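Weekly sync, protein design subgroup
Attendees: M.S., D.O., the rotation student, P.L. (late)

Item 1: inverse folding check
M.S. brought a backbone from last month's batch and wanted to see whether the design step gives back something sensible before we order anything. D.O. pointed out we never logged the input encoding, so this time it goes straight into the notes. Structure tokens as presented (549 positions):
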């Protein structure tokens, strides 16, 4: 196909004019991240899908059925453990696609990447709907898991480089605003999916495939709006009145030069930050996946006023009561995961990225190490508070790392470098849950009571944070020899279809942003993403309030 056929998506068409208001870019990023963030909320489909054939109760497969045979079985219901594999596919393909296509994104621009993300994520949901309709789980894996996972990766990194270039004065805050959308996607999408499934449910259908199609249509509209809302600044643009920091000893960790992707990922700094992210995320993601059973098994009867009743001694009705309370706990953790992305990333603009990660590791170590004694003392409030803070730092780690990379390697190729770094997420997505699950099972198999089964796990997770602290301590500024020369930078900017400030405006110096954009458009953009977020937060708070009754 000719370039003209794609001219609407070309990077040249997205370079902003002199009067563009940079505050239109964060809601565009949020529109995409709030949609792909539903990956976190996919567990809302597992229970209905586990009885898609039986409707009232699951139709069990033969006990000796192999995993391969189960992929193609159409006469029995899927186990929740089989459906849960979707999470692994999500984050493996998110990390891989971000790593593989990050360089392409820098040259193609965020708009084209956002459109491809929308096609993959929403197309994956449509394919999954077909898989549910014909009851073939492998089709569902291929749709949402593989193709949708590629869309997750492209959508996740699409705004990173753009936001960092628009907000050189507030790198952390800008990426925090966008990436908190990924954490908040499930907060909006899960209640929506629950409502849609109840709406579409019939005596012969649990309503999941219809819900997939409806959500694909809704998300496609929002994601396209976000993609076409992207604009990139001309090279050399800077906010009015802002002066880039002068290279001094006190800000040696922030460079004004740029490292090429081909060199960045071979530096020790890249791999140290990779390890920092793996260790921080592994500790948090394991807890996020086990939050509900953890609270129920540790506090058991105490959650409903029965102080000396263990989890196994509760009646079915009592277990249902504490499950409702645990759902509120999970929702509260999600809120802190979201809020932490904005709060900690914004804080990093003032105290620095390296110092922010030091806070994560030191405070996280203290909290993890204190949790067992807090649980044994029956301090439910402190237990909940400690985990809320931990999850805020889990989210904060995701939101702060793009700015950390931009500080170390410059902003020219930070999106591609960030894409490579997200292989750390795929690694942590396997390491964290496996670690916490298998240690728990080992403890229970050796006769440890459920209320104490997580003690050793907490101490091991605290140990991971010590390793993270050491890796962060070893991060130093990049050597001069690693940076691109002026000629190499000019060549890369030409390949990336960048336009300089002078070429874009006919003048040299900074361009003042925000003087010509209609303020009503900015307000509308923020309202469009703000209302769904507010509704999601309100629903989550209503569920979480049972913890404090």
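Designed sequence read out in the meeting:
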């Amino acid at each position: 196909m000719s370039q003209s056929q794609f001219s609407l998506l070309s990077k040249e068409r997205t370079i902003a004019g002199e009067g563009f208001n940079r505050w239109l870019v964060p809601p565009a990023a949020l529109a995409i991240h709030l949609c792909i963030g539903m990956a976190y909320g996919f567990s809302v489909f597992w229970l209905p899908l586990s009885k898609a054939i039986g409707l009232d109760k699951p139709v069990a497969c033969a006990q000796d059925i192999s995993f391969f045979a189960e992929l193609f079985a159409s006469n029995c219901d899927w186990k929740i453990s089989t459906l849960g594999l979707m999470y692994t596919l999500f984050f493996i393909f998110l990390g891989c696609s971000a790593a593989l296509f990050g360089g392409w994104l820098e040259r193609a621009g965020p708009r084209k990447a956002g459109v491809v993300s929308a096609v993959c994520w929403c197309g994956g949901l449509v394919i999954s709907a077909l898989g549910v309709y014909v009851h073939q789980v492998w089709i569902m894996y291929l749709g949402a898991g593989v193709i949708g996972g590629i869309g997750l990766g492209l959508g996740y990194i699409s705004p990173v480089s753009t936001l960092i270039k628009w907000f050189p004065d507030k790198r952390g805050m800008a990426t925090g605003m966008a990436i908190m959308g990924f954490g908040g996607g499930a907060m909006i999408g899960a209640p929506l999916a629950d409502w849609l499934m109840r709406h579409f449910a019939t005596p012969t259908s649990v309503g999941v495939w219809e819900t997939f199609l409806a959500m694909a249509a809704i998300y496609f509209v929002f994601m396209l709006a976000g993609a076409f809302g992207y604009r990139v600044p001309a090279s050399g643009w800077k906010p009015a009145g802002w002066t880039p920091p002068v290279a001094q000893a006190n800000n040696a960790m922030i460079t004004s030069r740029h490292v090429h992707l081909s060199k960045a990922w071979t530096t020790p700094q890249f791999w140290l930050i990779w390890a920092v992210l793996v260790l921080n995320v592994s500790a948090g993601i394991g807890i996020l996946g086990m939050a509900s059973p953890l609270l129920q098994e540790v506090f058991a009867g105490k959650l409903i006023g029965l102080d000396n009743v263990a989890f196994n001694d509760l009646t079915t009705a009592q277990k249902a009561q504490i499950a409702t309370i645990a759902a509120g706990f999970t929702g509260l953790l999600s809120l802190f995961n979201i809020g932490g992305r904005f709060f900690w990333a914004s804080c990093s603009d003032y105290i620095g990225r390296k110092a922010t990660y030091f806070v994560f590791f030191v405070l996280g170590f203290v909290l993890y190490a204190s949790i067992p004694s807090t649980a044994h003392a029956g301090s439910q409030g402190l237990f909940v508070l400690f985990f809320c803070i931990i999850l805020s730092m889990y989210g904060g780690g995701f939101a702060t790392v793009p700015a950390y990379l931009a500080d170390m390697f410059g902003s020219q190729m930070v999106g591609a470098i960030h894409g490579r770094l997200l292989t750390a997420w795929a690694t942590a997505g396997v390491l964290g849950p496996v670690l916490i699950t298998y240690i728990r099972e080992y403890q229970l198999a050796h006769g440890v009571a459920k209320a104490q089964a997580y003690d050793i796990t907490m101490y091991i997770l605290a140990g991971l944070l010590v390793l993270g602290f050491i890796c962060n301590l070893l991060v130093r500024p990049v050597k001069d020899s690693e940076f691109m020369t002026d000629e190499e930078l000019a060549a890369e900017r030409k390949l990336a279809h960048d336009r300089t400030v002078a070429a874009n405006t006919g003048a040299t110096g900074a361009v003042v942003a925000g003087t010509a954009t209609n303020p009503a458009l900015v307000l509308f953009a923020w309202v469009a993403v703000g209302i769904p977020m507010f509704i999601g937060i309100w629903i989550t708070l209503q569920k979480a309030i049972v913890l404090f009754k």
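Discussion: Residues 1-5, 502-515 have pLDDT under 50 and may be disordered. The chain has two domains: 18-239+517-549, 257-501.
Action: P.L. to compare against the previous round before Friday.
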